[in-house]
Amino acid sequence: MVSKLNPEDFRSYRLILDPDDFALGDEEPDPPPTDLVSREVWEGIMTLPGDVAIRTTSHQGTRAAVLHELWGAWIDVTHPEGIIAEAMAEGGDELEAALFNLLHGFYKQAIAALRSAIEVMTLGCVCEIATDTTTWTAWENGGEIWFKELCDKAQRLPAVREYEDEARRKTGTSLFAGDNGSGRNAWARNLYRRISGYSHTRGTTTNSYLWQSNGPVYSAVGFQHSYNAFLETYVLLLFLAKLGCPGLIRPREASSIDQIDSRERFLAAPFRALAAHYTAALFGAKGNPETTDVRLPNGEGS
């Protein structure tokens, strides 16, 4: 048995864009449907994820807003040209996909999308700094690049090594080199390894484990896993974008994820000091002169 939402709830109806809302194409009215899906098929596809989206936004509305604002801010600060611009555009698509899947209960797929964002941004950062258009073009044409090799290249770049050496001295670890230069416990490598588990269907990284059911169904645990992964990935992506584009301005919205109580939620202890250090080193002591104090319904920081 299913029930309709209260008609006064804005989520009870769907919206479509007008032709003039699109950047490309003419402004002629859309033609009528030519092959309309049956109601049975539509409901079979949409009912369960739609139910999750309603439940998620009923109980996680503030957190959903945080992620939406972060994605929007990423689009706003995307560099207009160069390899890093292409990487940021692709990374932004992955962030949007992660948010959409998260909202609809596909937690494994949401986290897996973040893996792609880390890949493309790390590659874009390295190729931009090294002016390596050959590797970037090879990637775009289907070439394979191992993430470990990419991190090895990153830590050898003088423009990156300067920051890495200072980070290791002050925090005991770094993005690519880790605590002793081997990279084994470096943040970028560590995060990529953890998130990569969600690209496979096994153990505790499956949707069925997070749902404790078949699904999709709303899971507070699944949501929290995905939410924390999104925040951690976003912080790393900002550092990669800034390294590749020194003129990049840190979005105001990012201040909401730099509060100390937030970092304690989504960052392992060794990486909290590193995140604070890189924020100061790349964006200035305060990261950004404007701050946003996001508060959840229970009064805690986001």
Mean pLDDT figure:
90
| Percent of residues in β-strands | under 5%
Q: Provide the structure class.
A: mainly alpha
Structural domain count: 1
Q: Major sheet, described briefly? A: none
pLDDT < 50 stretches: 287-295, 298-302
Helix content: 55-70%
What general outline do the C-alpha atoms trace?
globular
Number of strands: 0
Taking all Cα atoms into account, the compactness measure Rg is 21 Å
Description of the structure:
By secondary structure, this protein is mainly α. It has one domain (60-283). The chain has twelve helices and no strands. Helix 2 (61-77) packs parallel to helix 10 (220-244). The radius of gyration is 21 Å and the shape is globular.
List the helices and strands and how they pair.
Elements: H1 39-59, H2 61-77, H3 83-103, H4 107-129, H5 133-140, H6 147-156, H7 158-171, H8 187-196, H9 207-211, H10 220-244, H11 260-266, H12 269-283
Helix pairs in contact: 2-3, 2-10, 3-4, 3-10, 4-6, 4-8, 4-10, 7-12, 10-12
Short structural summary:
This protein is mostly helical and 302 residues long.
List its salient traits.
58% helix; mainly alpha; 302 residues; disordered C terminus; globular
